[in-house]
Amino acid sequence: MHEGLNIRSEIGRLRKVMLYRPGNELLNLSPDTLGPLLFDDIPFLEEAQREHDCFARMLADEGVEVLYLDELVAEALDAVPGARAEFCERWLDEAGLPGRAARGAVRELLDSIDDTRALVDKCIEGVRADELDLSPTRAASLADLMLTDRNAGSPLVIDPIPNIYFTRDTFSVIGSGVSLNSMLSRTRRREGVFGEFLLRYHPEYGGTPLWYTSDRPHNIEGGDILVLGPDVIGVGISERTSPAAIDELAARLLWGEPESGVARVFAFSIPHKRSFMHLDTVFTQVDVDTFTVHPGILGTLVVFELTRGAREGEVGIRRLDGSLDEILARALGLDAVRLIKCGGDDPIASVREQWNDGSNTLAVAPGRVLVYQRNAVTNDILSREGIELLEIPSAELSRGRGGPHCMSMAFWRDAV
């Protein structure tokens, strides 16, 4: 087992988690860029930071060691000679910046930043044209000239990466290894560069076994990956995760070296729509035998089980019959499981609170979970069902379309 990572459930006592505190990248959002950058509104940064700080304090108060993505990446880049320069080139490649002169000007800006964490934060924040020496005399191409034309060009030379505070998505810890995910949208693919260098060069996490890599052609995102038990995971076939990626991940987990410990992969096909973007937006585990679920998926899910086939490297697939609760009970080896409906039986509350991540919870221990404060109907139901709730203020964080589970990448959980 790699000493830094151990995730074999969604509910074991949480000991270590990675977050990212929202920063100046949110200030580079504008109404014109919301669509491409996957936001529906522009959060108020100061309040989003206050809410996120409260989230981090609540985790720390539960005895969880809180790590931050940008700090870890900076430590990785400082640990190995040449890693920082390699990171900058890789990040520029992924940014897809047109124009040789523009690329050179951005590289000059990055090289002028002495502190490595400030460099990492700058790469997340995005680059504005007015930060660069982009005089027309330096232009080497039409693309360069367009960037220097204040009337024709965008104020942004490289877009921000505002979704990065949803640390769950870019890479996912499964057992003592990681799925380094291949993100669907171009703007989020740049997030993979941070995970790539962290897992390559960090003194503690470098050399972690990789169950999937971000250079694979088939997209998969961490919000679709749930570690249901020591030998079983669930993966959503969703708007963001393709069946082909699940085939590859399952083959690696079931047959690859080193051993992952995974014997079964359950693939849950959910509707491919914005409000259901990931599996963890429609159900998450809150206790050993209890899940919160969006009622809109009940009766519509199609579930497949993937296991080792008869021959080396072969994966057997079968479609499962039965209701979601029956399938989950069999998967976990339980007599039965409870499904607690987001919004209860109120059809308006259920869709409203699912939109605001009422089904997206983060367990710090069995039966003790972090939730968004704003989902009052669902929270009341969970509390009455005996689930202990830690409520996070969420007026601004929720505008990014992700909840407590999305905002956290668990690194270590105790056995259940």
Total helices: the number is 12
- Bin the strand percentage: 15-25%
Low-confidence stretches: none
**Cα distance, first to last residue?**
17 Å
Give me the CATH fold name of the largest domain: L-arginine/glycine Amidinotransferase, Chain A
CATH superfamily of the largest domain: L-arginine/glycine Amidinotransferase, Chain A
Residues in helix, %: 25-40%
Under the CATH scheme, which class of the largest domain? Answer: Alpha Beta
Overall geometry comes to: globular
Major sheet strand order: 8-9-10-13-14
Core attributes:
cytoplasm; arginine metabolism; alpha/beta; 3-stranded mixed β-sheet; single chain; hydrolase; 5-stranded mixed β-sheet; 12 helices; 416 residues; 19 strands; Pentein; Arginine deiminase; arginine deiminase activity; L-arginine/glycine Amidinotransferase, Chain A
Structural commentary:
The mean pLDDT is 90. Strand 11 and strand 12 form a beta hairpin. The chain has 2 domains: 305 residues, L-arginine/glycine Amidinotransferase, Chain A, CATH 3.75.10; 92 residues, Pentein (Orthogonal Bundle). The strands form 6 sheets. The protein has a 5-stranded mixed beta sheet with strand order 8-9-10-13-14. It has a 3-stranded mixed beta sheet with strand order 2-1-19. Strands 5-6-7 form a 3-stranded mixed beta sheet. The longest helix is centred in the first third of the chain and has 17 residues. With 416 residues, it is of the alpha/beta class.
Short description:
With 416 residues, the chain is of the alpha/beta class. The protein is 30% helix and 21% strand.
